[in-house]
Amino acid sequence: MHQYLLPGEAAKQLEDLLQQVRSSTHNFLGYPVSKDFDYTPLLPFLQFPMNNLGDPFVSSTYNVGSREMEREVVAFFAKLFRAEAHNWWGYVTNGGSEGNLYGLYLARELYPNGMVYYSESTHYSVQKNLHLLNMPNIIIRSQENGEMDYEDLQNAIRINRHMPVIILANIGTTMTEARDDVRQIKSILKDMAVRNHYIHVDGALSGSYSAFIEPRPAFDFADGADSIAISGHKFIGSPIPCGVVIAKKSNRDRIARSVAYIGSMDTTITGSRNGHSPLFLWYAIQRMGEAGLKARAEHSLRMAAYAVEQLRENGVEAWRNENSITVVFPSPSIEVIQQWQLATENGYSHIICMPNITTAQIDAFVKSVTLEHTGLVC
Ligand SMILES: *Cc1c(COP(=O)(O)O)cnc(C)c1O
């Protein structure tokens, strides 16, 4: 334990934490977090005060950072999300929530009198962001599978037709991983002749792999999105929470003018920004490439199909949305929920078949759920 260079008690505390983190990481199936990464080649970078403060596309005098790699990460996702050539911009955030905050902030600067619409299945952090930004908003009903109810959306817009429309679309809701159809939303806006509109896509989990699915879900810039946020520590995997936000450069330039007005050209949200997390994402992209990421997605989808099949064969009413890696089923006992760290809401729980999941893990999970079903476990 002396390797920590700490007094005995503190060293023990740290050692205990390591054991605890190790064992809790081993057994979780309920959270959308990949754990199959190995960034040890990047360890030497922990010895430096890396900081990417400011806009990654504007040069800075602080040179201890990873801005060049950050720009490559942004470029990779801009291309994957079919952003218009030369009209994209973005940065590596502290997570999906910051990316959503950024997208909504852009929308508010463009349409200060806009009304925000989002479904009741939306992640709780969106409401927090809307509160911070002081943006009026309307919650839209969800369909049974968690996808936005488009008729309810249309009715809500009709009532507020005089206001610009800002939509937060989910590409993968938190509980059922439902995808709102961006093309359909766009056609509703067109039908209703809404000229001023903005669509931000919350793709925290599924946004990172939807581009690899066939048929390709309607979620990106070519489908009508104005900005897209994803989490980096979910599908890709990272020891530090992070994410990526991609927006249209033309929109970013418009708000840059308003920021210049307050004496700064920094269009990002925080001051100092993590200089290590872009390195993790860059490293993952370099190692896996599009082909590797696609293979990861396909593995996850196969595992999800397997989990549904096994659970149903054992009498558990499991289901999943088409081409999603989240498997939903009636909540098991509190013991099973705790054992596998299952997220639970309104009587339903889910497991998320992240790329590191194996059939053996699914089998063990199915066993613990079905044993209890037949009353063999007390
Ligand atoms: C996880 C998640 C978020 C929040 O992302 P963080 O990276 O945890 O900040 C937002 N929306 C959805 C749908 C999520 O699943």
UniProtKB/TrEMBL annotation:
Gene3D superfamilies: Type I PLP-dependent aspartate aminotransferase-like (Major domain). Keywords: Decarboxylase, Lyase, Pyridoxal phosphate. The modification N6-(pyridoxal phosphate)lysine is found at residue 234. Its cofactor is pyridoxal 5'-phosphate. GO terms for molecular function: carboxy-lyase activity; pyridoxal phosphate binding. PANTHER family: PTHR46101, SERINE DECARBOXYLASE. NCBIfam families: PRK02769.1. This is Histidine decarboxylase. It comes from Chitinophaga skermanii. The lineage of its organism: Bacteria, Pseudomonadati, Bacteroidota, Chitinophagia, Chitinophagales.
